[in-house]
From TrEMBL:
Single annotated GO MF: L-amino acid transmembrane transporter activity
Keywords: Membrane, Signal, Transmembrane, Transmembrane helix
Species assigned in the record: Gigaspora margarita
A Pfam family assignment: AA_permease_2
Entries under PANTHER family matching the protein: AMINO ACID TRANSPORTER (PTHR11785), METHIONINE TRANSPORTER (EUROFUNG) (PTHR11785:SF353)
Primary location class: membrane
Membrane association type: Multi-pass membrane protein
Name the record gives this protein: Amino acid transporter
């Protein structure tokens, strides 16, 4: 509890102090993670040349689609840090007068980051398989990275891997908090928050040009979750409450990515039709890539409802809560948008009537 609160406080503090410092720290943590995964990969490759017996049994385990999907959503949650780090680019001042410069960087940085992540994760998992292997009879709760360190260096290796995982998690949380503070500001500016509180979150802090109120809101929200985890530990309410929140969060993110891909597809089709059936320069990504991406996300969203062979039947609760929140958000958006449309129509009607009255008065 104390460690998590201290990490949240440190992340919030340096992000409140300076955007530049926050960018540098976040990118430094990414570089540290890349170096760490490279070292693990090299160790695994070196070990593979000596002993590859674990690879003889790794594919003997029965295929479990539900377990695979459950593990996949946790892997995708770890990628959110890599994903959010791309949005830090807009915080840097471009060295070119070209207004499209940041978007060009974001385009190629996204492709490069996905490629680097895929290669590193592939090699890292290969290293884990080589050193740790797969034991169907293992019932312990020790994560594979810690078992990897223990196999190589004993208790010292387990402690070392625990520290590296903690630093990696610190970087992931830092990047997510940075991005979500911007989302809070955008939600306040576009009317997705109640009017009584939206005015609090629409501006930067004048002293350091940072999002002080948005970052503090996230800090207290995460602090509340930390207290929930503490209560869980003290009274032994549930051993899987952290997984519950993680799954609900990432499943909502998957729905968001699916909606974004669908909206991108609609925009692409409209631009294509208005551009004489040729590929427009704006949103130049091929439409088949969008469709493929959308189908993959839809498949993941559906497959997650398939139960694991050894799992409990309470697994879909977090996903159902995510869908409930999404549906509630859509309903609220539709009601608010409907009121705005009606208000706009009334304003247009009043304007037309005023113009008619003025024109009639002019004729008289």
């Amino acid at each position: 509890m104390a460690t998590s609160v201290a990490m949240l406080f440190i992340i919030t503090l340096y992000q409140v102090c300076s955007n530049r410092v926050s960018d540098i720290i976040n990118h430094s943590l990414v570089l540290f993670k890349i170096i760490t995964l490279l070292i693990i990969s090299i160790v695994g490759i070196a070990k593979l040349r000596i002993d590859h017996v674990n690879w003889n049994y790794i594919f003997n385990a029965p295929f479990d689609l539900g377990a695979y999907a459950s593990g996949l959503i946790k892997v995708l949650l770890t990628y959110e840090g890599w994903n959010n780090i791309n949005y830090l680019i807009e915080e840097f001042k471009p060295s070119s007068d070209n207004l499209e410069y940041p978007s060009v960087i974001l385009k190629y940085s996204s492709l490069i980051s996905v490629g680097i992540t895929f290669i590193l994760c592939f090699l890292t998992n290969a290293a884990f398989i080589t050193v740790v292997g797969y034991n169907i009879n293992y019932n312990g709760n020790t994560p594979i990275p810690m078992r990897f360190g223990k196999e190589l260096l004993g208790e010292t290796g387990e402690i070392l891997m625990s520290i590296l995982v903690a630093i990696s998690s610190f970087g992931c949380v830092s990047a997510i908090i940075f991005t979500y503070s911007r989302i809070i500001k955008y939600a306040a500016e576009t009317g997705f928050m109640p009017r009584r509180i939206s005015s609090w979150f629409t501006s930067y802090w004048k002293k350091s040009d940072t999002l002080l109120k948005q970052l503090l809101a996230q800090f207290f929200y995460c602090l509340g979750l930390s207290f929930i985890f503490m209560i869980k530990t003290k009274y032994n309410i549930s051993d899987n409450i952290s997984d519950f929140f993680a799954d609900a969060s990432q499943y909502s993110a998957m729905i968001y990515h699916a909606a974004s891909a669908y909206c991108l597809y609609i925009l692409k089709k409209r631009l294509y039709n208005t551009n004489n059936n040729t590929n427009p320069e704006i949103l130049s990504i091929p439409i088949y890539v969008i469709i493929t991406y959308l189908l993959i996300i839809i498949l993941i969203i559906i497959v997650l409802f398939i139960p694991s062979r050894n799992g409990n039947f309470d697994y879909p609760i977090s996903y159902c809560i995510s869908w409930s929140v999404v549906i509630l958000g859509v309903i609220i958006w539709w009601l608010r948008d409907r009121k705005r449309s009606e208000a706009t129509e009334e304003f247009i009607d009043e304007t037309d009537q005023s113009e008619e009255t003025i024109s009639e008065a002019g004729r008289d």
